[in-house]
């Protein structure tokens, strides 16, 4: 479990995160959503310690990241896996070598054991065997993401971070990646945090969703609760997607009792 | 403002070097990388060193002979001047300035690209000391390879002059041989090798610094690469003055 308590982060006097307090749960896909520029990426990078926060606590099962010394932070990071927006696979290694790399650095396995483990993880993300010897530039974006997921899980992390996992992918590949993240999260009971603004992902895998607006965490709940939310900012955000406009319209019609304040709830006036 | 920025840069460079020279996480991986870098930065630079040294040795011999064609000067002057120029400055300093262009831009652009494509962040997230893993092998490999490259450059430079004696009547082989053997001081070779190792450290570390702290996009990696070449060249020249004063004066 990861607890954030009053997290503040500024750059050159401009406050980006303005006191975020929230909680991310193990075995669930925790989503951070919000518009571009709302502070999602800064929050993600602060969570993993790439940005040093100005104030607050980030507790990894009780261990406060901002207070950690360099060695403690490195030890904690060995419990983390991360899927970067651009995959961040090492260009000079093959796909298999990329996945084996964390094992070579931190495990005492033999070469054969490392290779077996890497092959297992690549198989787990459904990468075809013929791609193992190829370099990242020789495979598609979707395959790169899957290889990056395999690398992220090869050391059995307790925490998995995914920064815009669907960016640049077609809807079908996005769905594959989303389902893969969800199934891995549940299978290994990982605390997974996904940074996204893809509403399809939200509906597909959002067990616990945190909505960020202008540096504040203004709403938190499950994907089912999105429909009944009266948070004006959240509604504006999700209504930007045509699909959600239709879904929420249908929800209001089907469940008018859930919108007591008005038939439109806190939705924009043109919503229904 | 300039002084503040300069001091901040020096401070960041020192902090980076502190991280670079930490004990590697896995010696086996670091040594493997070092061998790869010895090939990449050292062996792959031999081509340019061979061509430039051979031609510069020949050109220097011709020019010195033509400029010093005076009956009052002894016949060995051309060989002597060519040898000392090669040993003292060309094969260490000028060769390093050329390598600053090739190797420096290579290091800065490689590390800079890793930075902007988040590969360095990925290393950090894994708990790897990215500075140590990426930069240590480059610095060590380049410093180890420098003496070999300097000796190759000296040898081929002298052979270039010898080729002039063989292929033309500008200078005779006997005159040239007498010149390059006259009053030979082996200390000059030692001096040149020490200088080249210091220059190797400067080129690799300064270029790595600019690559490591690159940010933005491809254009910024290009800028980092240019800064790496310019600044490492300036620092090579500055340290040349210091070392020459220290070792020869």
Quick rundown:
The complex is a heterodimer of chains A (272) and B (249). Chain A is α/β, with parallel strands linked by helices and 272 residues long.
Would you give an account of this structure?
By secondary structure, chain A is α/β, with parallel strands linked by helices. Chain A has 2 domains: 26-50 and 69-223, P-loop containing nucleotide triphosphate hydrolases (Rossmann fold); 227-272, no CATH class. Helices cover 39% and strands 22% of the residues of chain A. Chain A has 10 helices and 10 strands. Chain A has helices at residues 40-47, 70-77, 95-106, 111-124, 141-153, 171-188, 199-205, 223-226, 232-239, 242-254, and strands at residues 2-11, 14-24, 29-33, 55-60, 63-64, 80-83, 159-163, 191-196, 208-213, 216-221. Chain A has a 6-stranded mixed β-sheet with strand order 6-7-8-3-9-10, with helices on both faces. In chain A, strands 2-1-4-5 form a 4-stranded antiparallel β-sheet, with helices on one face. In chain A, strand 4 (55-60) and strand 5 form a beta hairpin. In chain A, 42% of the residues are buried. Mean pLDDT of chain A is 86; it is low at 262-272. By secondary structure, chain B is mainly α. Chain B has one domain (27-247). Chain B has helices spanning 2-20, 27-42, 46-67, 77-116, 119-125, 130-167, 173-181, 186-212, 218-247. The mean pLDDT of chain B is 94. The A-B interface holds A 48, 50, 74-78, 80-82, 84-86, 88-91, 101-102, 104-106, 161 and B 25-26, 29, 113-114, 117-119, 121-122, 124-129.
Uncertain stretches of chain B: none
**Which regions of chain A contain 5 or more consecutive residues with pLDDT less than 50?**
262-272
Structural class of chain B: mainly alpha
What is the radius of gyration of chain B computed over CA atoms, rounded to a whole number of angstroms? 21 Å
Strand order of the largest sheet of chain A: 6-7-8-3-9-10
Helix count of chain A, per DSSP?
A: 10
CATH T-level topology of the largest domain in chain A:
Rossmann fold
Distance between the termini of chain B: 36 Å
Helix tally of chain B equals 9
Strand content of chain B: under 5%
Global morphology of chain B: elongated
Largest interface: A-B, 23 and 16 residues
Share of helical residues of chain A: 25-40%
Number of DSSP strand runs of chain A: 10
């Amino acid at each position: 479990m990861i607890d954030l308590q009053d997290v503040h982060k500024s750059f050159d006097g401009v406050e980006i995160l303005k006191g975020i307090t929230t909680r991310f749960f193990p075995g669930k896909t925790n989503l951070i959503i919000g518009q571009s520029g709302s502070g999602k990426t800064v929050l993600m990078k602060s969570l993993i310690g790439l940005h040093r926060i100005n104030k607050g606590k980030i507790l990894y099962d009780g261990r406060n990241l901002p207070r950690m010394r360099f060695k403690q932070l490195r030890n904690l990071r060995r419990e983390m896996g991360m899927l970067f927006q651009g995959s961040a696979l090492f260009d000079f290694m093959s796909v298999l070598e990329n996945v084996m790399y964390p094992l070579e650095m931190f495990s005492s396995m033999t070469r054969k054991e490392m290779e077996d483990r890497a092959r297992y993880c690549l198989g787990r993300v459904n990468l075809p065997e013929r791609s193992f010897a190829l370099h990242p530039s020789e495979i598609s974006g979707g395959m790169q993401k899957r290889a990056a997921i395999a690398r992220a899980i090869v050391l059995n992390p307790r925490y998995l971070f995914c920064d815009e996992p669907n960016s640049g992918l077609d809807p079908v590949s996005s769905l594959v990646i989303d389902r893969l993240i969800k199934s891995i999260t549940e299978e290994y009971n990982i605390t997974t945090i996904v940074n996204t603004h893809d509403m399809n992902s939200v509906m597909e895998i959002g067990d616990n969703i945190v909505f960020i607006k202008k540096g504040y965490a203004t709403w938190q709940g499950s994907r089912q609760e999105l429909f009944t939310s009266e948070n004006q900012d959240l509604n504006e955000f999700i209504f930007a997607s045509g699909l959600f406009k239709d879904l929420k319209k249908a929800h209001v019609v089907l469940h008018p009792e859930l919108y007591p304040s008005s038939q439109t709830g806190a939705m924009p006036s043109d919503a229904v | 403002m300039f002084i503040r920025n300069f001091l901040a840069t020096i401070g960041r460079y020192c902090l980076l070097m502190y991280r670079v020279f930490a004990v590697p996480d896995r010696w086996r991986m670091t040594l493997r990388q070092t061998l790869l870098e010895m090939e990449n930065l050292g062996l792959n630079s031999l081509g340019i060193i061979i061509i430039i040294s051979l031609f510069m040795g020949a050109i220097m011999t011709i020019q010195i002979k033509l400029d010093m064609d005076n009956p009052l000067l002894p016949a060995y002057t051309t060989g002597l001047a060519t040898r000392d120029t090669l040993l003292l400055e060309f094969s260490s300093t000028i060769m390093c300035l050329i390598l600053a262009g090739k190797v420096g831009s290579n290091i800065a652009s490689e590390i800079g690209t890793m930075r902007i494509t988040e590969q360095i962040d990925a290393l950090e997230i894994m708990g790897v000391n990215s500075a140590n893993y990426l930069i240590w092998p480059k610095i060590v490999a380049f410093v180890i390879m420098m003496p070999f490259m300097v000796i190759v450059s000296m040898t081929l430079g002298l052979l270039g002059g010898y080729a002039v004696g063989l292929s033309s009547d500008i200078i005779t082989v006997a005159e040239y041989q007498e010149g390059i053997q006259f009053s030979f001081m082996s200390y000059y070779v030692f001096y040149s090798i020490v200088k080249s190792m210091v220059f190797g450290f400067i080129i690799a570390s300064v270029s790595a610094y600019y690559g490591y702290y690159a940010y933005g996009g491809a254009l910024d990696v290009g800028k980092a690469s240019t800064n790496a070449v310019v600044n490492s060249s300036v620092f090579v020249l500055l340290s040349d003055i210091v070392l020459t004063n220290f070792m020869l004066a």
